């Protein structure tokens, strides 16, 4: 297997095609990349912006250049000795009429050859939740009609530009008669004859008859656990792997599958031992990927969480919590907030999925002749789902794994006083497979669906609800982060890196992705708020006072409320471009164009006073007007103050940025450079983080000079310095892949004055030695003079070359930081 030394993620679509990617290959070579890491490239819905809504898994999207364009890209990559990693989507496809498999299921119902491809409950009609209102109202408004299908000419039920094919038994031998129907009652009767029914999109939460991706009804789950479905949906993927065009696969949302282990074993066997495979998987604190999975690792969200331990000031984080509570005049009880978010998901957003599980459990109770009813099971199942601490367990058809059994026992212990012990014990027996043979099939289905539900519940309650409600420190509201307060420590960071080396040395290390809540440099800057909570709170108080006249009283309270104001100023601090001046009207307008949609999304994801399904227009308008005023060029008093107050955080954030970059490039794991983040990435949540970077400028910057100049201010501000450091270290990785893949990770600790400001470690194998020292916590004390790092014998009495400056150093028993600039990372390679 060829393991990448570094990957570069490119988001195809939105103008990025295969031919445009070919033009970037020389730049990727100069940067030191070994593998291009592509977002999904298979045919997706028309105008898809991301490619995860696949309509044909066996066709390369013509919008990107089709198979011919892909072959050109593949040939160019091979000529440049670069590999290609593809992002594949085995969990779902688009529930779209553009999807021929799905359209056939709509037309033929349960008799379609593709009916078993999708995870559909065929005990009732297939629900299609794409109406803007209830069926009867839509019909009365003359929005439904019978028309010939544009492609086939056969009768279809037309709703605006969508044509839902009618099942042949409802029109055969009377085509003209059916096409002539205009009477509402007759249309309704014809609708009743279909194996599907159109419903209001708002009813999907409780009435959907197919498994969806999280809450997205436009994405339907597919059953890759079935060998025929796997083969049909992976034919082109495996062809590209076997022909050598693709050297690696990134598996999207592995936890959505019925049997992740079985899928990965089948994929590994089909792809062969040389294919590099990683999975998108959120690991909770202390959780590891199952050892049985034949993969190289995850896509690296846990790496971001580990970095926070190195860059957050744990001695002052509690003061930031207190400052937030003082500003909001409310106690910030995160445990209660987490439970409230999970309750909302179980009771409302995933009500249909919960109801299906409950019905299964009730049926099994009847089969097992257990003497309790649905009400007891309802409470027990609800409490178990709310208490689940990780994304899922990995039980299979025969029962639960030992790790899964231990986790279930932990959950049951937590909820034992909240539900009937008998009902909890029964649910445990279902999940463990400890029932009679007659219930084996239903128990296996329950186990599978339970495990497929806990992940979406966790993601939507934490990442997409709680993290948009709690604003203490936005930098730690990130994918893969722990939702509840916990200690941050440099020692824990080192432990995580040692574990990473042991458990997944070939896993991807990410700092920005298409799914992160904010760009890596925004996060690096916001970490510094933990170093000066009192100062930050003082700034927020002053800015709120400046904007008192922009507060709008509404019937349900003022808008924005204090917590949202705190969020606005902090999010703005993270997104503010390094060179933006308060008087730059065009720059302010460009930032506002990105920032206002982010605020709207943040408000709706919080689900407190507005929501995606039930928006509060008056509230949203008041908050967005407040937001627009913040960035108005006429609001100079605030803008000048904000810009001036931001400067120390901006400077410390840029130093943090280099620190996390150097760590990513030298610690265990395969570093991924998300498109554009090799310079500076202050992006907001998607779709902002999926914008195409200015590749022309990036190429020009890298071509201009190979020197790493820490004394050139503009190189800091425009990202050139970061880009040059990345190129320098990535080429070292290309030269010494074994050092970075297998080299030991040895934590080093500074002593003496300012020792807390240094992060140090060594990487060492039988041939090479790398010594890394990077700064931390430098907002107030921008100095690490006086700090000394004692070197063990294996590192001492050697000459080192500073990779970034070229300077040679002779080190004996210690490395003194006395004369080292605090802002310049040290990357020393033994000569």
TrEMBL record:
<dbReference type="InterPro" id="IPR013797">
    <property type="entry name" value="Maltooligo_trehalose_synth_4"/>
</dbReference>
<dbReference type="Pfam" id="PF00128">
    <property type="entry name" value="Alpha-amylase"/>
</dbReference>
<dbReference type="InterPro" id="IPR017853">
    <property type="entry name" value="GH"/>
</dbReference>
<dbReference type="GO" id="GO:0047470">
    <property type="term" value="F:(1,4)-alpha-D-glucan 1-alpha-D-glucosylmutase activity"/>
</dbReference>
<dbReference type="GO" id="GO:0005992">
    <property type="term" value="P:trehalose biosynthetic process"/>
</dbReference>
<dbReference type="GO" id="GO:0030980">
    <property type="term" value="P:alpha-glucan catabolic process"/>
</dbReference>
<protein>
    <submittedName>
        <fullName>Malto-oligosyltrehalose synthase</fullName>
    </submittedName>
</protein>
<dbReference type="InterPro" id="IPR012767">
    <property type="entry name" value="Trehalose_TreY"/>
</dbReference>
<dbReference type="InterPro" id="IPR006047">
    <property type="entry name" value="GH13_cat_dom"/>
</dbReference>
<feature type="domain" description="Glycosyl hydrolase family 13 catalytic">
    <location>
        <begin position="12"/>
        <end position="382"/>
    </location>
</feature>
